[in-house]
Write a structure and sequence with these properties.
About 10% of the residues lie in helices and about 30% in strands. The protein is mainly beta and about 130 residues long. The chain has a six-stranded antiparallel beta sheet. The protein is globular.
Length: about 130
């Protein structure tokens, strides 16, 4: 099997839903307050919907009142890549999965303590794994 990042567009279309493909591979954005996890409160780990990499823990999730899942920290900084994004006339920092290159969302400097950052992530870019009991 090819490395996740080396998958062709056709291979990605074969494993992702159309909405996942739009967001993860074409840097799309789901509408606020529509995603599966924006108001999700269960304990567990949020993985990349593209490759399964563990990205965020529910312990760092908070309600940012923005309509997307928000986290004040990632599980491991090496599992995400931050890229300057100047599209749409804005200056933002895009967050992508370091393993597969899938677009997750953006990070902003307006989060709570202890980090002061807000990872604003598309629900469709994530797959939740509940904490084992």
């Amino acid at each position: 099997m090819a490395n996740e990042i080396d998958k062709s567009e056709e291979e990605w279309r074969g494993v992702l839903t159309p909405e996942q493909f739009h967001v993860l591979r074409n840097k799309g954005t789901e509408r606020p307050f529509t995603g599966e996890y924006w108001n999700h409160k269960e304990q567990g780990v949020y993985r990349c919907a593209g490759c399964g990499e563990e990205l965020f823990n529910s312990d760092t999730k908070f309600d940012a009142h923005c309509g997307w899942p928000s986290f004040y920290d990632s599980l491991d900084k090496s599992k995400i890549t931050e890229i300057e994004d100047r599209t749409h006339g804005m200056h933002r920092v895009e967050v992508v999965c370091a393993k597969c290159g899938g677009h997750l969302g953006h990070v902003f400097p307006d989060g709570p303590r202890p980090t002061g950052v807000r990872y604003c992530i598309n629900s469709v870019s994530l797959k939740f794994e509940p904490k084992a009991e």
